[in-house]
Input
Amino acid sequence: MSWSRFGRIGLVAMMIALALPAQDSAQVKAETEKALRHFDDNKFGLFIHWGLYAIPAGEWKGKYVRGIGEWIMFREKIPVTEYEGLARQFNPVKFNGEEWAQLAKDAGMKYMVITSKHHDGFAMFGSKASGYNIVDRTPFKRDPMKDLSAACARRGLDFGFYYSQDQDWHEAGGRGNNWDFPEKRDAQPYLNNKVFPQVKEILGGYGKLGLIWFDTPGLLSIPQVDSLRGMVKQLQPSCLINSRIGHGRGDYTQTGDNAIPIQVYVADGKWEVPATLNDTWGFKKNDQNWKDPRDLIGKLADIVSKGGNYLLNVGPTSEGVIPKPSQEILRTMGKWLAVNGESIYGTSASPFMINGITWRATAKPGKLFIHILNWPGRSLKIEGLESKVTRASLLAGKAAVKFTQKAGMLELALPAKAPDVNDTVVVVEIADSQAKVADGHRAGQLPARLDLFAWESRLRGEEVRYDFVTQSAHGFRRFQSETNMLYWYPYKALEGSYQVELTYACDDAVAGSNYRLFVDDRSKPANGSIEGVINGTGGKFVTVKLPGRLDVTKQTNTIAFQLQGDDKSAPMKLRKITLVRP
Ligand code: H79
Output
């Protein structure tokens, strides 16, 4: 049965029936369901990673530290006693909660999530449960979360806290710190003395929380996680809990960090993509690898068309300043949303399967919003729409768009150039409340040839770059950790055995590196791969059939591409892989 036959409410009710743990009371279930519907309408939120790690900002003892900035204590195995010293320097005199909340508002965001305590164990709020907190240990001596939660409330933004429940590198009972503490852990005293009291504090002291965002589960048992969930729901029944609480006890799902499902994904309920604007969550002074607003606006449309929310991160400095480039990017997104928000907020997922990167669809009763991400020229053909189209127009400016519709093919007549290079939205009004889509084109199905473009992948590593002109990624440098790679995330959509084609260009002078394309299953890491040599193409894009097959199972977490051995061919340009059903 296709999901599109359910109404919007029916769909959400079904998601909740699948998702909610049995222990919830009827009241908790009802409040959670209502909160989930509201959360689904929000679509776009601001993530803030702010903590002591903003002081070293990606450098330790004069040495650059690769990887995400908030992991510096772990990466450098900094002793607790030494890391604690950072608190004495933490003085965010430029912090202004009103400005941060206003930035989220200007960006068109509907909710905010900020780190109350990250893996380093330092509480960024006034905590009675642990003296290791911003009020008691820093020259700032104030609780910034009071200002921020109030500033969000004033603007109608939902406010939520990130809380690292499982990893805590400051505590012997928390997970992660194997350089100060013995390997063996008893989490219970840590839970009783720090986690439970602090979770009570953040639920009790900052008004209504839209959600609580736990992270990196692993150590805690099912009963321990059930206690944590029970505590949250007892204090604030409507406060949503994310899946990273662990053991399937969340109300909604996180994808991996920066990981976007390749198809419409609604069978497992509501989900959210946490993502960075550069390559770090916590501030790093040398990370200037900012994503293009066009990329981010396209990703917002892409994620919403697949059924998700987008939670985009900023990492303020230790002075309390959100980096200028982050502010500019978010305000650019806000300008687009101010005009095109109707095609994002409160919409439901695309009724069409996803193939290619030309367009995406979002839906409201009687309407489809066609998001044109890569301009096709004077005509866009949409196959498989069976509902009668009554009108088409540009969302920005409302100008009518001429169209023809015959034999299941809708053709929109477009200007030669994109009116909005970020995403031009065409409103297609239809005679049915829910679009009817023909077999072979519907969400939940797959075409015989499925293109997975570099644009749809997660670009991993600090050197890999995407180029809009050639629609390709380059910079496949190899490192001990964080080798540059592309990852695609099937999220159960792709089960089957596929032949693969690679579309790429490579200058002859840098040809010759080995590549590896592989699937990674949660159960069996790297259980299938295709390997070969990157041949020179005289710099032109070519499509080559790869040897062998790629077997994708329901458990497949990722499909990944990387260079092996040497990285001489790092400048090669990879446009897409094509999965072909034999
Ligand atoms: O809060 C952000 C991250 O700090 C957190 N989730 C987002 C929202 C996160 N926790 N763990 N991870 C992300 C996975 C991190 C893995 C790595 Fe590493 C950290 C890769 C590089 C640094 C651990 C240390 C594995 C390799 C070195």
